Amino acid sequence: MFSYFMGNGEDGLHLATSNDGLKWEALNNNKSFLTPTVGDDKLMRDPVLLKADPDGKFPMVWTVS
Asked: Angle 20-26-27 (CA atoms, 0-180°, nearest 5)?
């Protein structure tokens, strides 16, 4: 799983998957999974998925501007 943004980050979180780490396939028809709603510029840039918590959740952090 790979998280990324497109353009300036205005449309939010994008995800891609790969079985070999070389060929990646965008998920959700390359549409955003999460639209940014916070910050003055409403941007979601540099999203990073972190290792799963003990409860199985994958925390994510990102920058906004």
From this structure: 110
